[in-house]
Amino acid sequence: MKKLLFTVLLALIGLQVDAQYALPQEKVTVDKALFMFGDNMDWADPDMDDSSWNEVDATRYWNEQGFPVVEKSFAWYRIRVNIPKSLLNGADQKNVLILNIPKVDDVDECFLNGKLIGASGRMPSNESGYFSAHKDARNYVVDVKKDGIRWGEDNVIAVRVYNRRGSGGLYGNPLNVFCPQAAEGLSMRITDTNVGDYHCDVEVNNGFATSTSGKLEVTVTDRETGEVVSSVTKRLNIKRNKPVSISVPYSMDKMCQLSATYTDGKTGKVLVENKQLKYALTPSAPAAPRFNGAPVFGVSPGAPVIYRFPVSGERPMKFTCNDLPEGLHLTESDGVLSGNIDKAANLTFTVTAENAKGKASQEFTLKVGKNMIGQTPPMGWNSWNCWGLSVTQEKVMASTQALIDKGLADFGYGYINIDDGWEAAERNPDGTIEANEKFPSMKGLVDWLHERGLKFGIYSSPGPTTCGSYLGSLGHEKQDAEVYNKWGVDYLKYDWCSYERIREKENDWGFSSCLRPYLLMQKYLRQQPRDIFYSLGPLGGTQVHLWGIYCDGNSWRTAPDIADTWSSIYHVGFRLQEGKSQYSSVGHWNDPDMLVVGKVGWGSNLRETRLTPDEQYTHITLWTLLASNMLIGCDIAQMDDFTLNLLCNNEVNAINQDMLGKQADLVRKDGDIEIWSRPLADGSIAVGIFNVGEEDHKVDMKSLIPADKPVKVVRDVWRQKDLSPEELDCVIPLHGCRYLKVSF
Ligand code: GLA
């Protein structure tokens, strides 16, 4: 409760204005601070005795000034600043001051004379989990009447700092205190609502206590033709923190851009925001049944078969099979295959799905044998990129239900994986692991998933603790594998995290020291009477893809943690995957990390991904080309029509699931244009043409298609349409792509 109040308080008081301030003439600047390691909330008190503290330069990390780098450490800074009333002279509003404090690596809470006035990032104790804000500028707004400024005398700005790792503390700019112009309290936000009815809300807010009025002009333009699709102009009167918004409808059939301009009546200050609108390329799936999955699934002899036939089309639907092998069972209403087969064999049978609109069949092979796990890259959901450590059983079930209800299960998304944050604080007296109170019944949850033909994934670390500081498996590997079997786990993400400390202790830096803990868990996993997909986590600087195969990893991370930004997609997806196709093969996939489309947030506060629609098409195109794990990272319960359309393109997903299992390579680079291509089982090739630059490019795709024989068909797989030669000349917008399947 206390924590909640504190968070609410932060939200209310810690109003942080994002605008880049043009500093006015009069400001007070201080670059010296007093510094102390440790954490004590009494240090916010302006009158505490800080005479023993060290004087430091507030614009340089503490470790550049003779203090050690200490991981996961707290420290405090106290800055004394005399604030003269003359700062208000000549200001066109006299209600607030801005404390532009130095940047903080990583998280801070900032107090003025003992009163909390702002915070950036999230402390580890935050219920949504830790989040670094080390690159953010800090502009904290102080109410001149209410926030206890001591005019003309020393004020104490106390900054509580948390450093996760590496350099720590205040850095960058000095402290600046100034009175901003009234129009600088203005901000504009565009949100895109995209469920059923598509519209953007353009909202203008006034953060300062000065009423303003002005004119808002909004235009929607077709990006392909330049045509203005709609425009609205409106006069707005905006009171402090009472945002005014207008709603602008749009259609997902066109690729549009929204431009909003607000002109402040008094000062003439202009705010401009542009937003690329969401657009749907995937044609609607037919109402008649259509099989959307690879026609194969692998299982070990005797292990339970858990497979749900991914078939789109209207419900109700009836699933039947006339030649179902003995030992297997297929549910009629939702196509869930279960049972087990004792002996190695390739069992081929035909499954038929029928509804009021038609009928479809698929010849399917169940490969029963050793090392058959992961015949195609795993598709499903993982809790991390949305809920982070705030994951609960309820949230997992909500995303699962939505995965079924919104039809994602009909496109092959079949794993439901819980990431970090499920583990109890302590093991049972007999050493077995338990779920914490957020998961009242792990076994109940898994049974519920299995009944629906969905598979269940869990998370741990070979070290004593996980990356989120929960219990790891060290010393309990056998017990954990047995508990996983008891619960019915089908996927384990085994994340290096604190094992680094063991390695440091042993001072052994060879591959064998990486392999050892992974081999240990592999041994116990493979002793269980069920198949557990073994996914290896990223290990700092070590290169898992070089040795993951030797501990029978089914996939391994080939990049550090992804974020929902273009620079992350560019780095993780493009640069770090170059030259890695040789390490990927059927059952042993490279994993550049989970998807960052939809609503993500790594904690309980979710936000729309920061990737533009073009960047999201690039993300999915690249991941499918890379034969990567396709684990959705957003809350599926809140998934909008755009994201659904993006993730449910059967032709795009078929490339990811192609049975040849060959990851794409970067085959050509012409300036900003990169061509990534992979061969497919039917003799065709999949080609992604990406514009990774910062401007649009005109591209003649004909000249870029890698072909040593005559081309028969060039198909645009997003639009599911064969292209004529004229359509091969196109413009690829910045960070955008075209996705082709070329047949010979
Ligand atoms: C690491 C992993 C993430 C996630 C977190 C959980 O950072 O790379 O994907 O599993 O740990 O703490």
Instruction: List low-confidence stretches.
Output: 1-23
The biggest beta sheet is recorded as: 8 strands, parallel
End-to-end gap: 65 Å
Structural class: alpha+beta
Description:
- The relative contact order is 0.08.
- The chain starts with a helix and ends with a strand.
- The strands form twelve sheets. Strands 35-34-33-32-31-30-29-38 form an eight-stranded parallel β-sheet.
- The chain is an alpha+beta fold and 744 residues long.
- The longest helix has 16 residues.
- Helix 5 crosses helix 7, helix 9 runs parallel beside helix 10 and helix 10 packs across helix 12.
- It has twelve helices and 46 strands.
- The N terminus is likely disordered.
- Bound molecules: alpha-D-galactopyranose.
- Alpha-D-galactopyranose binds next to loops.
Summary of the model, kept short:
With 744 residues, the chain is an alpha+beta fold. The strands form twelve sheets. An eight-stranded parallel sheet has the order 35-34-33-32-31-30-29-38.
Key structural traits:
15% helix, binds alpha-D-galactopyranose, 744 residues, 12 helices, alpha+beta
